[in-house]
From TrEMBL, chains A, B:
Domain HTH tetR-type stretches: 11-71
GO molecular function list: DNA binding
Pfam families in UniProt: TetR_C_13, TetR_N
UniProt KW Hydrolase keyword: no
Sorted UniProt keywords: DNA-binding, Transcription, Transcription regulation
Source organism phylogeny: Bacteria, Bacillati, Actinomycetota, Actinomycetes, Pseudonocardiales
Positions of the DNA-binding region: 34-53
Protein name: TetR/AcrR family transcriptional regulator
InterPro entries attached to this UniProt entry: Homeodomain-like_sf, HTH_TetR, Tet_transcr_reg_TetR-rel_C_sf, TetR_C
């Protein structure tokens, strides 16, 4: 990955390229998004894009990182060191799903698109690990506050919650309704709540 | 949809077209699979394909139906009226996932690919409903046999199990390991087992 731009104008240009590519790749897939479309829709030139990215793969890495940042920004409970309430996280997940009209998960939509590309696959797994680690940290805070039993494995509960979020988002997208997502998250939380 | 072929040769040709299209569309997406590729890889001619299918959309409907049949064939506990054991279903799901090298769900992989096509989206939702209904029926048999408490909602448990299967398959695919899928199904089952 090339160095970050140092001027605010450079940062804006790079950001416009990444957000446009993220929108297109989320809608049409990485394979269905030629660089020409990114250039046309972001109104940037080829030389600008190649100034910031070595090519499509480097741009896709930046897109995946951008998608995780979007996910984490919509789940402030994860980074709030005061938060010990898993239901706040659950409400944030539901609110973001509702706001997107029960769209695909910004990050999960890319699973299965990167099977043939070791670098992208490794990047995506690493980003999911960051998400899961943040959720594990929230679970530990909830345990320290006595809201979740101490004998529950925080890593396992975080993985189960992320699995419920992924499957629930898929089925809520399919049906265009919150039922699958809300129901599966609530089931996991009911099992560990005091 | 056109009438089914009446000769065994016709059925074989139609089946070869559908299984080839299913493999390509599962690997590359519906949008990433031109009819030309289906013709080339199945070794059939354009006139044969148009004899059985009005076009790509009709072929895609047949592919989605074929994918559900594959899923149900790998989960014989659902149609076995003697089966009252949700763990047998869980073992079948895990065995199929292992056999595919933790690939994408044959049916779930298409969620999000059909947003702009009302007929395909309706078809996919209907096929998921059939899967969920079969799972609800298995839950009811387990309840009748006293293996699951009678006060559990069979529909809700079936949706929660399907959500765990979808999310678990996604994360097991990402990590290339059974942990997410096995862990999330076991968690749901542990909650309702006696």
């Amino acid at each position: 990955m090339r160095p970050e731009p140092t001027t605010s104008r450079g940062r804006r240009t790079r950001e416009k390229i990444v957000t446009t590519a993220a929108r297109l790749m989320h809608e049409r897939g990485i394979g269905g998004t030629p660089l020409e479309d990114v250039l046309a829709e972001s109104g940037t030139g080829k030389s600008q894009l190649y100034h910031y990215f070595g090519g499509k793969q480097e741009l896709a890495v930046a897109v995946l990182e951008h998608q995780l940042e979007r996910v984490l920004a919509a789940q402030p409970s994860l980074s709030d060191e005061e938060c010990t309430d898993l239901r706040r996280w659950r409400d944030e997940v539901l609110a973001a799903a509702d706001e997107s009209g029960y769209g695909n998960c910004p990050l999960g939509a890319f699973v299965g698109q990167v099977d043939d590309d070791t670098e992208l696959r490794t990047t995506l797994a690493r980003l999911f690990d960051r998400w899961q680690d943040a959720l594990t940290t929230l679970v530990r805070r909830a345990q320290a506050a006595g809201e979740i039993p101490a004998d529950v494995s925080a890593e396992h509960l975080a993985l189960t919650l992320l699995t419920a979020q992924q499957g629930g988002t898929t089925l809520s997208h399919l049906h265009g309704s919150p039922e699958a997502l809300a129901g599966s998250l609530d089931d996991v939380l009911a099992r560990v709540s005091r």
